[in-house]
Amino acid sequence: MKKLFPVFVLCFFLAAVSAYAQMLDRSDSRVQTTFNPGADWKVLGTVRPKSVTEITAGQNWTLGCETLDRDYIFWDTYKEYVAPLGIRRIRLQAGWAKTEKKKGVYDFAWLDEVIDDALARGLEIWLETDYGNPIYPGGGGWDLGAGFPVSEEGLAAWDRWVEELAKRYKGKVRDFAMWNEPDIGKKKTSEQIALFNIRTAETILRVNPDARIGALSLAHNDPAKVKACLDVFEREGKMHLFTWLIYHGYAPNPDASYKNVTELQKVVDSYPHKLKLWQGENGCPSEMAHKFALSNHPWSELTQAKWDARRMLGDLGHDVVSSVFTICDFDHTGREINRKGLLKINDKKSLAKVKMAYYTVQNIASLFDLSLERQKEYAANVSDENVTWFAFRDGEKKQDVLVFWDGTKIPSESNEARKTTWTLENAQIAEPVLADVVTGRIYRIPDKNIGN
Question: Is the pLDDT assigned to residue 146 strictly greater than 70?
Fold first, then answer.
């Protein structure tokens, strides 16, 4: 039996660089906090960031590159910062209303430019089919919270657009998602949501049988709502159309979401066709916001970084595909700038800075890929009952990785270290180190803190 006595700290990691991403800091001191585990904890180095071209194993991550369909932000504003972050798959919204401004005339040039450029950078596309199109009576609304197409003309036009979308990007896009957050705004029943999902998925698969489709994309991780929708899929014999079940659901304490996530998993497991859970949109503001999710709380760049890291690693620990919302702030015209971005904007076409959370997310992407297998039954005891932790193992390198943080509270400004005693059995840890994933610094654990 081996005892380790590492200082507890929220688990979060570092950054990457493109030749053109001029504001990225490449120095070892690019992120600084007041965290200090002790004078005898020697800094060995920092996490080395990896661009997407350096990551060969599969990933659990997706990066949000949303709202280009409504011109709330532009691809050119931040495109040089996407690949250096290290997350390969990006979420795009296809934008029916932006593509078909005149009935029957499709202009995909704006989306072609984004998708082709992203693919050239080594990225993969996750394409969302939304929103409606007001040029058709009963064609639905063009923004978040809008109604589905409901008229015969509107639905027929929707089908044609989805078919054109699937045809155009066959061979370039394999992964699709359904209409974003249909459970907010104009009320839609579970029956309506499920049937519209079926309609859209069947159109995509008719054109591209190899497509993989995420169902629902609900704003809330509500097990009852999900079950009502899945019951319709099952009744109609259409569950097989879908690969994933996508949910969102924001909470000030990211760890508070997992009670419902566990219930969602139980719901999914109750059907013969098993869907994989995908957290499709979660992020945290870097300052006080008055609109949008997680508003009216005094967030900062530090607490944003901690929140994003806890969400990513919590999702990894719950076997949930994890999405980071979002790469860049965007200006939701008529409301306010949504500050959940990893990059801060001055306006839609210019960046102000790279936020601390960018480097944190970059660290996680660099350190955690699917070569690490979660150890569901791991022999460990932790002295602090407030510690949330998960264990992973690199089978090839025969090395274990433990991630841990205090999951009982909203991320705070405090960086105070507190001692935690770990008792491990059969651990594959030859030379234990402590990585602070916010700063990226890696510390050698002093011999006096390691027992036999």
Answer: yes
